[in-house]
Design brief:
Elements lengths: L1 H35 L6 H33 L15 E4 L2 E5 L4 E5 L2 E6 L4 H6 L7 E4 L2 E8 L1
Parallel strand pairs: 2-4
Antiparallel strand pairs: 1-2, 1-6, 3-4, 5-6
Helix pairs in contact: 1-2
Length: 150
């Protein structure tokens, strides 16, 4: 299962890298749109287009900052470390599914199996954190149990 954790870590890395690259491309595109806008006789149109490009650039900068925070969270994970309790970097197998405690990257497919990359700060992550195999947790009024932790 350590190999599975390492592969999931790499999938999360790819997710973050993709978000970073898309944000950088959006920033560049917004900057180019702003630079290419030429002053016309309709001054308001020019100002509006530049303002819209600036808003898009600021939005992309925010997304880049958020992706940077995800990168920092991943950098704290030791992917090949075996674990006995649910914490950042652990793979938690439950009666409700398989959860990789890392970043909120959503559904990950690996070797035909479904895993969910979740943040320890998420509601489910908060229910799992600190628990061991055999313990119970509750989500939306339903009881689940932890089968294994790696």
């Amino acid at each position: 299962m350590i190999n599975t954790k390492i592969a999931l870590y790499h999938k999360c890395e790819a997710y973050v890298n993709d978000r970073i690259e898309r944000s950088k491309a959006d920033i560049q595109s917004a900057q180019e749109a702003s630079n290419n806008e030429t002053k016309s006789s309709a001054g308001d149109k020019y100002e509006t287009a530049r303002a819209m490009a600036q808003i898009e650039k600021e939005k992309a900068l925010t997304q880049l900052s958020e992706a940077g925070k995800l990168r920092q969270a991943l950098d704290m994970i030791i992917a090949d470390k075996p674990m006995a309790i649910a914490e950042l970097g652990s793979l938690v197998i439950t009666t409700a599914g398989q959860f990789y405690m890392s970043i909120s990257a959503g559904k990950l497919m690996l070797d035909g199996q479904v895993f969910f990359a979740i943040s320890p700060a998420s509601p489910l992550g908060q229910q799992l954190i600190g628990k061991q195999a055999g313990e119970q947790y509750q989500i939306n009024g339903k009881q689940f149990s932890i089968k294994e932790i790696y």
